[in-house]
Amino acid sequence: MSDQVNILEMMGGDAGAALELVRLDSNETAIIPFTPSGERVSIHFCEETEIYGYVQCNGESCILCRVGKKKEERVLIPVYLPTIDTIGVLPVSPSLRPHALFPQLRPLLKAATLAVAFIKREGAKFTVSTRALPQDANGGEAVVKKFLGEREAGRVDLKSVYQVIGNDQLAAVAEISRLMELKGIKLS
Question: Which residues in the chain come in under a pLDDT of 70?
Fold first, then answer.
């Protein structure tokens, strides 16, 4: 008996491409917004070694909320990433403060024609510059069309860019378990 397996068969056929989380930093990132339709998500940042990263909030009974981990709100906006020819998910804080990303994206999302946005972040300050999509540039029409069809069919979850960890698994992480003990929190 062979140990070879077909990973696609194990995953139930064509699992589709995973969505790319768009991470902004001091280098410009090129995006092409193509829809004003996004999803809201509540997330927590966990510094614990076993997790290290953002995790979706588990709602009213969330252990992370109960132990005092800050909950942050994001709006997840699908965008085309022309440099890697794929769809990405841009997490945007709903903040309207000066230099926030959300108000700077509004004109792009309302525009009747596609444009390329070049975004960079320095601390909490976002800079967005735009230019019309050059006539000979790939605007990702085929990739966007496929994505929109998959999303309409319910096969795309923008929130999947953030891990989901159940309360029981979170409670098994040593640091979180100790916080629960100190606060007198029991899993219900």
Answer: 1-17
